[in-house]
Amino acid sequence: MQPFSFSRVHNNREAINAITKENDAKFIGGGTNLVDLIKLGIENPKHIIDINALSLKQIENLPNGGVRIGALVRNSDLAYDETIRQRYPVLSQALLSGASPQLRNMATVGGNLLQRTRCPYFYDAVFPCNKRQPGSGCSAINGYNRSNAILGTSDHCIATHPSDMCVALTALDAIIHVQGVNGERAINITDFHLLPGQTPHIENILEKGDLITAVELPAMPFAQRSFYLKIRDRSSYEFALSSVAVALDVNGGTIGQARIALGGVGTKPWRNKEAEQALTGAAANRATYLSAADIAVKNARGYKYNNFKIELAKRTLVRALETTGGM
Ligand SMILES: Cc1cc2nc3c(=O)[nH]c(=O)nc-3n(C[C@H](O)[C@H](O)[C@H](O)COP(=O)(O)OP(=O)(O)OC[C@H]3O[C@@H](n4cnc5c(N)ncnc54)[C@H](O)[C@@H]3O)c2cc1C
Ligand code: SF4
């Protein structure tokens, strides 16, 4: 582990100035991902800027009916917040399905958005990995790729995005608020994470100096009827093989609106609007869910050890839809 300096900032402007003036600096939130990456030598920042003293810890109801969540709200506090549990249960369930209570007590919303993949080759510096070392090759494509992605892959990287929270945020159409050297911007979560393409080391659209300040959940009354289903090798403390976040508006057996996002199978949290359209206006029954599931994975590409994920993703989606919308 290389030595680094450590400083603490007390307002957003100070944080942005501190990270902009250094060449190789990183913010630290809960540290549950960054510290592991530093210990393994995968990330080697020369300066660590502690943002925990910033005023980004509130969960506020907005006049437009939405909710604004500060970037430093801990995953546990968000999961157990009464507004979130009642109005956006899918988010609470997704958070509680991730990591362990101790990790959730530390992990922040901003850090969760930026957590890095769990592809085993990314964490093992013996193996080539385009994400860790651009241009070195991808060990997973022809290697043991059971945990890797089937949607959004490229010839350069097939790593899954690991976050459960982000899958729920994707179904909820969340907006990421960012403050940077040129002021503030609001980014839809579907535009926030990038596909690997030829540059898998570039994972999101943030620029140097950007501080995530908040996540906004738009008003979505039907999200009261929402659900997160996570399939994994053991029932806790494990990343998803396949997961689904669903919100459904069902009236008299007909689906009004639908939101679907898949996790554990995509190189980014995976929203499929075509599958949502197939549900909209259709009868809430198994036949409808099966055809939406076929659409959701129609562009999937399986690799030697993860081909099973195509069928698994379909079954996960159908079960989540049956649980949320009835049969
Ligand atoms: C053993 C283990 C099991 C886990 N299991 C799961 C799981 O099942 N599901 C799941 O979803 N997650 C899981 N996680 C991951 C966990 O959710 C993340 O580590 C956590 O959410 C990261 O948040 P943090 O605040 O600790 O981030 P940090 O480690 O502090 O930071 C992560 C990155 O975000 C940057 N950053 C942090 N805050 C900001 C900000 N406001 N603005 C700009 N940049 C920022 C940092 O510079 C760093 O690059 C697991 C982690 C571990 C260690
Ligand atoms: S899938 Fe991506 S993270 Fe995994 S080895 Fe290949 S390039 Fe690296």
Quick summary:
This protein is α+β, with helices and mostly antiparallel strands. The protein has 12 helices and 12 strands. It binds flavin-adenine dinucleotide and iron/sulfur cluster.
What do you see in this structure?
By secondary structure, this protein is an alpha+beta fold. Among the domains are: 46 residues, Uridine Diphospho-n-acetylenolpyruvylglucosamine Reductase, domain 2 (2-Layer Sandwich), CATH 3.30.43.10; 101 residues, Enolase-like, domain 1 (2-Layer Sandwich). It has 12 helices and 12 strands. The strands form 3 sheets. A 5-stranded antiparallel beta sheet has the order 4-5-8-6-7. A 4-stranded antiparallel beta sheet has the order 9-10-11-12. Strand 10 and strand 11 form a beta hairpin. Helix 5 packs antiparallel against helix 8, helix 10 runs antiparallel to helix 11 and helix 11 packs antiparallel against helix 12. The longest helix has 18 residues. It is globular. The model has no long low-confidence stretch (mean pLDDT 97). Bound molecules: flavin-adenine dinucleotide (FAD) and iron/sulfur cluster. Iron/sulfur cluster binds next to loops.
